[in-house]
């Protein structure tokens, strides 16, 4: 190589270095951390990526997380850490580690100088409080929850972290011996770490948004309701999961603690001795002591989720419905997918996905009964009658199968989300409230054509997969992804999904009790995407008609899981949620729904005067 070439090469290198904005080693409360600076495209910008920064010390089994003591020298933060210890998909072995409380950070950089005061978005993954990891599933080295697309397209910092799941995250004796909520406390530790440290990465600690999906969406909701996060969270987004979902809170944790104790040979008759014994048991044995039944279930799946957040009187001082005053200054988006219940309905009634197989009224009645245990046969009858009424006009199998999916969507996701949004709005002071329905149809080739957006279908769009792996997607998928990233990151920046760094396809009007406004998100977005009063006649059914039926068994009664042993179902602690106030619909004077609503919308109840808007109730399934 000649002298001139060397000079030119040297100059080019110098220019590249001089123009690359990067953080280098960053000084956090624990010590220095150094990530990777990645160039995006030829003329492009940069992103600084930190993987595996500890936000708490390695946790002790079934104990609250503690602050990390810090380290000497510079911590290389270049690889994802192992997930928190959990069962594999086959449930006969485990993977991950107990030492798992680490987080990852993506910081978008311009070409000249490092970013400052960026909004921060913290991701909380789902997985039924049983499985999951900060990076998500890996397809061809492309992790589902890679923060790069959101960070660079929306010009925000993205943070993701691990939290404990399964028995190690949520086992509780229902008393002070094992209060539970370890996984929720991990989440809080991560949020608090970000609040204290994100400024040195270029983030604005006063503009933290938490967002999550499914159990992560419910976690987001629970974090906004916990007094522990006072002043830490500015905004929140719950995708397909809120604190009011019937699977979000375990009402009878001791029942499940005993199941584990029995399996691993710990005392059952004294929770103090049980707790001591469980804490010194091999954490892998604790994890494998619980198995989620995946076939041959007597009841719907939701009844077998044993290890969930609990009302412990501290992190969650009361039933979530009573805690919305704590979210009065937190801007909130909550929404669902139009067929969120599909994947669960597919497990409980596999025929819905087979065009050649028929479902019967008996099948549907049995499914309904499993969801209406607390109201006995009259609850099952009333619900069955209400949901099958449209079958008189259209008795096609397709219509019946859609009814199955809508029942599960309503119970598991939609109704709880509608109540949560109403409750947030009712309590809001400075905060804004928005809600959406995601309806871009599933691309699963084995599903019938009528299937809409299934549970978790929104994730690939929010995380920009149509851009990260363009060959796997169509242009319409990039349209959907672009819109979602724009709304989500604008919201993180300003509290208004319409205003910020990115243009949006159509204006998203805030939710009010009167308007019932919601944005329908799919490939075709325009002025007609703003709709009103989603399935309000169903909301009315569940919150008024169903609620008025007499309860025959204790709320939260836990069916015995099909493990063979015949331990009787214990009576749950006397819950007071039956005594919660009246529905969000205010007085019952009915007005017609606007024609823009979906075809199922029937008269929408007026909300009455919002100044005296009444608090919603929890549906006791
Ligand atoms: C962060 O939040 C504060 C308070 O809401 C606001 O004044 C400020 O503009 C926000 N910062 C950015 C970068 O949006
Ligand atoms: C609990 O069980 C153990 C062993 O079966 C027994 O020795 C003990 O007395 C029991 N304690 C109580 C409080 O029943
Ligand atoms: C439920 O419906 C079935 C069939 O119509 C009827 O035989 C039964 O008496 C009803 N039960 C209640 C409690 O309404």
TrEMBL record:
It is an enzyme of class 3 (hydrolase). Pfam families: COesterase. GO terms for biological process: ceramide catabolic process; intestinal cholesterol absorption; pancreatic juice secretion. InterPro entries: AB_hydrolase_fold, CarbesteraseB, Carboxylesterase_B_AS, Carboxylesterase_B_CS, Neuroligin/BSAL. Residues 553-621 are annotated as: Disordered. It comes from the Eukaryota. One of its GO terms (cellular component) is membrane. Residues 26-542 form the Carboxylesterase type B domain. Belongs to the type-B carboxylesterase/lipase family. Interacts with CLC. This is Carboxylic ester hydrolase. It comes from Delphinapterus leucas.
């Amino acid at each position: 190589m000649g002298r001139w070439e060397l000079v030119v090469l040297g100059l080019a290198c110098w220019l590249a270095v001089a123009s690359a904005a990067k953080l280098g080693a960053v000084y956090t409360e624990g010590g220095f951390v150094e990530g990777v600076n990645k160039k995006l495209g030829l003329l492009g910008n940069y992103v600084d990526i930190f993987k595996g920064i500890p936000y708490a010390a390695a946790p002790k089994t079934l104990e609250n997380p503690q602050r990390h003591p810090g380290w000497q020298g510079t911590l290389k933060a270049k690889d994802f850490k192992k997930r928190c210890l959990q069962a594999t998909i086959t449930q006969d072995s485990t993977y991950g580690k107990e030492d798992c409380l680490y987080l990852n950070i993506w910081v978008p950089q311009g070409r000249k100088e490092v970013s400052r005061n960026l909004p921060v978005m913290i991701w909380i993954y789902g997985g039924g409080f049983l499985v999951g990891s900060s990076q998500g599933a890996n397809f061809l080295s492309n992790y589902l929850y890679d923060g790069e697309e959101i960070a660079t397209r929306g010009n925000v910092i993205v943070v993701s972290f691990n939290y404990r799941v399964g028995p190690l995250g949520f086992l509780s004796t229902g008393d002070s011996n094992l209060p539970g909520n370890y996984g929720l406390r991990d989440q809080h530790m991560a949020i608090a770490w970000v609040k204290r440290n994100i400024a040195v990465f270029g983030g604005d600690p006063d503009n933290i948004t938490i967002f999550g999906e499914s159990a992560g969406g419910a976690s987001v909701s629970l974090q906004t309701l916990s007094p522990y996060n006072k002043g830490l969270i500015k905004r929140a987004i719950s995708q397909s999961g809120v604190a009011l979902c019937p699977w979000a809170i375990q009402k009878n944790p001791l029942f499940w603690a005993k199941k584990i104790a029995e399996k691993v040979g710990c005392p059952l008759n004294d929770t103090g001795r049980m707790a001591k014994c469980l804490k010194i048991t091999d954490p892998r044995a604790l994890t494998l002591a619980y198995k989620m039944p995946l076939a041959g279930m007597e009841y719907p799946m939701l009844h077998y989720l044993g290890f969930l957040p609990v009302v412990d009187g501290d992190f969650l001082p009361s039933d979530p419905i009573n805690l919305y005053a704590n979210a009065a200054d937190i801007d909130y988006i909550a929404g669902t997918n139009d067929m969120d219940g599909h994947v669960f309905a597919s497990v409980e009634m596999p025929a819905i996905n087979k065009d050649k197989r028929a479902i019967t009224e008996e099948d549907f009645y049995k499914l309904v009964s499993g969801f209406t245990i607390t109201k006995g046969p009259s609850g099952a009858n009333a619900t069955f009658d209400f949901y099958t009424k449209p079958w008189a006009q259209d008795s096609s199998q397709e219509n019946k199968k859609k009814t199955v999916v809508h029942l599960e969507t309503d119970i598991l996701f939609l109704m709880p989300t509608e109540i949560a949004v109403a409750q947030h709005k009712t309590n809001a002071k400075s905060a804004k409230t928005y809600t959406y329905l995601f309806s871009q149809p599933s691309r699963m080739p084995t599903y019938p054509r009528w299937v809409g957006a299934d549970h978790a279908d929104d994730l690939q769009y929010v995380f920009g997969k149509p851009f990260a792996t363009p060959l796997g997607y169509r242009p319409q998928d990039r349209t959907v992804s672009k819109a979602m990233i724009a709304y989500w990151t604008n919201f993180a920046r300003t509290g208004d999904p319409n205003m910020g760094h990115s243009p949006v396809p159509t204006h998203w009007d805030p939710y009010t009790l009167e308007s019932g406004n919601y944005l329908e998100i799919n490939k075709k977005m325009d002025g007609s995407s703003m709709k009103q009063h989603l399935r309000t006649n169903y909301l009315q059914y569940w919150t008024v008609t169903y609620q008025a039926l007499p309860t025959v068994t204790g709320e939260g009664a836990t069916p015995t899981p099909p493990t063979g042993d015949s331990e009787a179902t214990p009576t749950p602690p006397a819950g007071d949620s039956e005594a919660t106030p009246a529905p969000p619909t205010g007085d019952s004077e009915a007005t017609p729904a606007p024609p823009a609503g979906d075809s199922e919308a029937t008269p929408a109840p007026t909300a009455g005067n919002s100044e005296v808007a009444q608090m919603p109730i929890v549906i006791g399934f």
